[in-house]
Amino acid sequence: MALRAQPTAGAGGQRGGAGGAGMAVPLRLLPLCALLLLPLPGAPRRPPRCGPPCSCWRESALCVGAAGAPRGLPAGLGSLSLVNGTFAEVKDRMFSHLPSLQLLLLNSNSFTVIRDDAFAGLFHLEYLFIEGNKIETISRNAFRGLRDLTHLSLANNHLKALPRDVFSDLDSLIELDLRGNKFECDCKAKWLFLWLKMTNSTVSDVLCIGPAEYQDKKLNDVTSFDYECTTTDFVVHQILPYQSVSVDTFNSKNDVFVAIAQPSMENCMVLEWDHIEMNFRSYDNITGQSIVGCKAILVGDQVFVVVAQLFGGSHIYKYDESWTKFVKFQDIEVSRISKPNDIELFEIDNEMFFVIADSSKAGLSTVYKWNNKGFYSYQSLHEWFRDTDAEFLDIDGKSHLILSSRSQVPIILQWNKASKKFVPHSEIPNMEDVLAVKSFRMQDDLYITLTRFIGDSRVMKWNSKQFVEIQALPSRGAMTLQPFSFKNNYYLALGSDYTFSQIYQWDGEKKIFRLFKEIYVQAPRSFTAVSTDRRDFFFASSFKGNTQIFEHIIIDLSL
Ligand SMILES: *[C@@H]1O[C@H](CO)[C@@H](O)[C@H](O)[C@H]1NC(C)=O
Ligand SMILES: *[C@@H]1O[C@H](CO)[C@@H](O)[C@H](O)[C@H]1NC(C)=O
Ligand SMILES: *[C@@H]1O[C@H](CO)[C@@H](O)[C@H](O)[C@H]1NC(C)=O
């Protein structure tokens, strides 16, 4: 780059007296090379206090091979050149003892880093040339405070990326030179791409070294950045200091609630999202005895909670507007239910049902139906199978239930429209010891997950005739394999009683779930996704430890 000073129209006018009292000619009107390398005509030679490695003239100094910022220079110095220096980095406030500098040239040195506030205190700096060094890293606030800077060159360094908003303080910038660097034109450069489009400064071409498709092209010509330059994470949001076995969420009147079954406290605890405190707080407690499940049911604007208990029968509570709490609504006919293990809610032809899977030897998994007054038993499904889970799903427009049992492979029942009952349809062969089946949809395809305690849990896909395995996930004490999604990110949470629980994320390119994160939950029994106030949460219930609430966050990678 040619070191030619240019008339700094506009940006220069307001700085009265910048350059020191003795400056005869405004610095910005002189050819810079003269200022840097040659004594000014008629200026006195080398004031005595300026010694090696520097040569000084009245307004300028040139230091060759300095090991740091030279000391003992005239405080009113207008320009300083440091060349062939041996210092490894430009430290913070490195030149603050020279507050009159209008020009600073740091060429052909060997430093690799420029730290935050490197040029702090240089309120009058207009020209900053940092060329032909080995800079790889520039801190985000390196150029902080340089509001008068008009010319900045970082040419011929080893820069591959610049931190976001690194130029944001440079209000007067007219020219920026980035030649001789090759940038990674990936997410990290997205901000620079956008900044180039809006800045009023003249900027040299910014060339790319990668990704491969953009090698030796200009950043300006990049047409898209991968994956929108974001990733996601789960971070702990709130810890509830009690155990839980089931978590269910429901919306009522624009508020979000969560019902948690707490066996040790004999409670079905209802939490409410607090829009002000931004956390979940206690709303009501439904007390019971050996509660194993709390399931919310919304019928019109009425809110019910089915409370499944191991002893004393199971009951339905209803939210009472006038008492602002849940009150007992009805008992569930218990002759058929002795060991409830799962409650599943569903709707067929606008009618509301739920099914309780019963895991006792003598139990009968039973479907209950809403008849406008209450829920009454509608159909007993099958005897003696020790069902652990029931899943309702729509397969090709038809309603089905999949029952998982301790005694056999999962069976599929189909809703018969004429008899309005479920009838046996098929089974999922060769899948013994499945504790639970969950279904989910992704891009119009139907999938199920099969939880197995030890061995491999499975992910299967419906191929219009049957479910076919697409992935096996090694399970080490798994009681739950829960699919869930937030904002087009699809996940599976695989619980483990013996090690960390694992969250898998769907990889749309490879078409498999990939291990994404491990979380520690003691004896996890269920995972539940809850969304509110445009925030997404993930409840991890624990049979032996605290109940944890994670927040699903999106991280911008274009930094
Ligand atoms: C720069 O420094 C190196 C050693 O540090 C030396 O060999 C070289 O001659 C110097 N170059 C100039 C132009 O002074
Ligand atoms: C560029 O100049 C225009 C016109 O003077 C001004 O409105 C705009 O704010 C400037 N943009 C920036 C980023 O400084
Ligand atoms: C519910 O029970 C928990 C634990 O016993 C208690 O901390 C909380 O205050 C109770 N909430 C209400 C609304 O009574």
Automatic annotation (TrEMBL):
Entry-linked PANTHER family: LEUCINE-RICH REPEAT LGI FAMILY MEMBER 2, LEUCINE-RICH REPEAT-CONTAINING PROTEIN
Keyword Repeat: yes
One of the GO biological process terms: inhibitory synapse assembly
PROSITE patterns, A to Z: EAR
Subcellular location per the Swiss-Prot or TrEMBL entry: Secreted
Major place of residence: secreted
Protein name from the UniProt record: LRRCT domain-containing protein
Record keywords: Glycoprotein, Leucine-rich repeat, Repeat, Secreted, Signal
Record carries keyword Repeat: yes
Secretion signal, residue range per the UniProt entry: 1-45
Limits of the LRRCT domain: 181-230
Any one GO cellular component localisation term in the record: extracellular space
InterPro entries the UniProt entry points to: Cys-rich_flank_reg_C, EAR, EPTP, Leu-rich_rpt, Leu-rich_rpt_typical-subtyp, LGI_related, LRR_dom_sf
Pfam families (UniProt xref): EPTP, LRR_8
